[in-house]
Amino acid sequence: MTGDTVLQVRNLAVEFDSIDGTVHAVNNVSFDLKRGQTLGVVGESGSGKSVSMMSLLRLIAEPPGKITSGSAVFLPRNGEPVDLLQLPKRWLARIRGDRIGFVFQDPMSSLNPLMTVGEQIAESVRKHTELQGSVCRDRAVELLEHVGIPGAAERYNNYPHQFSGGMRQRVMIAIAIACNPDIIIADEPTTALDVTVQAEIVDRMQKLTKELSISVIWISHDLGVVAGIADVLMVMYGGSVVERGEISRVYSHPRHPYTIGLLGALPKLGAAQKRLVNIGGSPPSLFSPPRQCAFAARCPWVFDRCKAERPPLFFATGSHSEDPSAHGHVTACFYDLEKDRRRDPDETGIDVTAFEVGQQG
Amino acid sequence: MQRYLFTRVIQSGLLMLGVLVITFFMVRLTGDPARTMVPRDASPERVEQMRVAMGFDDPLIIQFARYVGGAVRGDFGQSLHYRAPSMRLVLERVPATIQLTLAALGFALLFSVPLGIIGGSRPGTIWDTLARGFGLLGQTVPNFWLALMLIVVFSVELRWFPTFGRSGFASVVLPAVALGFFPLGQFTRLIRSAVLEVRSEDYIRTAYSKGIEEWQVLSRHIFRNVSITLVSILGVQFGYMLGGSIYIESIFAWPGIGRMINEAVQARDFPLVQAIAVFSAGFVVVLNLLTDIAYALIDPRIRYED
Ligand SMILES: Nc1ncnc2c1ncn2[C@@H]1O[C@H](COP(=O)(O)OP(=O)(O)OP(=O)(O)O)[C@@H](O)[C@H]1O
Ligand SMILES: [Mg+2]
Question: What is A239-357's CATH topology?
């Protein structure tokens, strides 16, 4: 199985120093990403989705941010595995934009207003390939065509303000795929766009990444969008992963109280563009170190253990399950929703360092 | 772009017309312009003589038409003090002032650009402290005091530079430093905060996410956006310095426009004051126009606006 894993994140923790104290933005996040797979990451605002993914390539502000623990082993198509969190900055710069591309939320502000869109694509190509001068330009034009911009050769010389939001997001996608990466991290790439344009961008991303067998980490507020494109769903809450598993399985058998709340708030299909509705209670404070379940204060199933310990990941379904999609479905909850009872105190959580999605303990 | 420039040119023309109106009435504010142009103890005959000589006995509208007609041809009348055409006197002094202003701005930029950039991109470090220190110092040290200190230390004690006058490169150093110290502080502060601001823009994160190295992000992405701020303050400071160098030019006996204003006001040489005022205003208007053109060259959002 290890052969087709491209990214293996283990026990990632990120903190921010602020005047009010230390913000524990990401705690013990672990996951695997397979080649060609799309991982959907959902969770309410402030749950650590962006910070956890941006910190993989050290794209958070340091200081005030700080990666306090963890590893992120990246296994490129051609090349040795490397732990991204241990790499010196210079090496990291060779991976960013080349092996791992990014698409950000707001296409209005994500492109440099003083540089032509073509130049912004070419800049990345020039940095990571041997291409120079007009060849590099041709490649940028080709990429513009590839993401469906009509009249690409003329559009090369346009500035971002001459493009609509959807067109700019396509330029961002062109930048992300410019060097044929192993992974694209897309941080709410459609949130800022019109509904009609959203669907177009989703389709375009899906088509391109399948074509080039690029793995995608798709961060979203929109469970409707994620349902359509992700293979694996990862639900985050209060800086931690609370549930993860094959998407159809998580949707049909949610096994964490927070996920159940989220799905209860899932708008019906057809109205799928609505953002997540907040479930009862307020988001957890991230100032105190994680010593209890972050969801305890809002949880209908809460009991004393939830306030005394932080739940590790447990398998959501026992190893007896016939359904292969149940394999690798995990939840961070002391209450076994499958059996509708509290877990035994001696039931041990999963050793994440040895664990992969799709593998059953 | 054409429309942008066209409106700017029209605005500049209107501005100049306003300047002419103001300078015309400036002399007449006190009621009797002839009185203000003669020494306080002058005889009534002398005042009457001046009134006739300057045409102050004509109806106001005729006087104004004459004034504007002359101004268009660059004729502001004879300087009372120098007994020569006022505008010619002004133009003779222009190179010295421009030389001093450019030297002062050059000095300010030389230090403020690196300081502001380093401070802004490494907030909280010793470089940042240095940048903020200079920013504060530049804006709090009075330039006439600095000028005197520079003279005492570098001219009188060390004898490195002449104490006054305009004679070759060495003579411009001290006045340029004295004059450039305030903008040095101001530029450092503004560049620092502009860098801080641009650094946190989304497109800078995009640049890093493409794998661009830090110094290239700085030079290609951050500095270009910061230069918009830089151009605007340069334009303002250049214009401001033409007037602001009255002290400095007087202290260093620098034969420029600033010193001439001082002399002209003391001598009640109103034609000369008018010529200086109109010239300086025109200079500032042209500078603003150049600034606007520079904006358009840097920023495509302006260039392609319509
Ligand atoms: N520069 C920073 N300084 C201090 N705290 C920060 C900083 N950046 C992020 N955080 C904190 O980290 C936590 C996680 O933020 P993150 O941006 O990852 O949330 P998110 O899940 O992406 O939310 P959203 O859906 O709103 O994008 C938040 O509580 C936020 O306040
Ligand atoms: Mg986010």
Answer: Rossmann fold (3.40.50)
Q: Which pLDDT band holds residue A274 (cuts at 50, 70, 90)?
A: very low
Predicted ipTM > 0.85: yes
Size of interface A-B (CB pairs under 8 A): 80
What is the number of structural domains in chain B? Answer: 2
- Looking at per-residue pLDDT, the higher value among A146 and A273 belongs to A146
Residue A53, class by beta-carbon neighbours within 10 Å (0-12 exposed, 13-18 middle, 19+ buried)? buried
pLDDT value at A243 more than 90: yes
Domain boundary pick from B168, B195, B227: B227
B149: CATH: 1.10.3720.10
User: Which of A59, A114, A169, A175 is the best mutation test for B, with the most CBs of B within 10 A?
Assistant: A114
Q: Is pLDDT above 70 for A203? A: yes
Q: Which whole number is the average pLDDT over A209-230?
A: 89
How far B209 CA sits from the closest chain A CA (Å)? 5
pLDDT tens per residue, range A153-181: 999 999 999 999 889 999 999 999 999 99
| Dist CA A353 CA A360 (whole Å) | 14
Mutation probe of ligand 1 site: the residue of A24, A47, A106, A225 with most atoms within 8 A of C-beta:
A47
Q: Which of B210, B299, B304 sits opposite A114 (nearest CB)?
A: B299
Q: Kindly list the residues from chain B whose CB atom is less than 8 angstroms away from the CB atom of residue A111.
A: 203, 206
Chain B, 96 to 155: residues with Cβ < 8 Å from chain A are: 124
Q: Ligand 1 pocket test: pick from A19, A22, A23 the residue with the most ligand atoms within 8 Å of its Cβ.
A: A23
Q: Which residues have a Cβ under 8 Å from the Cβ of B81 and sit 6 or more positions away?
A: B263, B264, B267, B269, B272
Between A43-52, A310-319, B97-106, the lowest mean confidence (pLDDT) is in A310-319
Write out the two tokens for A361: 């303990």
Residue B294 lies in a domain: no
**Domain check: are B29 and B120 in the same one?**
no
Domain ranges of chain A: 239-357
Q: Is the pLDDT of residue A268 over 50?
A: no
For ligand 1, the distance from its centroid to the CA atom of residue B190, given in whole angstroms, is 29
Residues B100 and B18 in one domain: no
- The CA distance from A208 to B11, in Å, is 52
Q: Which domain holds residue B162?
A: 93-227
- Using the Cβ of B197 and the Cβ atoms of chain A, whether some distance falls under 8 Å is answered with no
The 3 state secondary structure assigned to B141-168 is CCHHHHHHHHHHHHHHHCCCCCCCCCCH
Residue ranges, chain B, pLDDT below 50: none
**Which residues are bridge partners to A185 per DSSP?**
A102, A217
A3 is written with which tokens? 């052969």
State the pTM of this model.
0.83
User: Which residues have beta carbons under 5 A from ligand 2 (an ion)?
Assistant: A 50
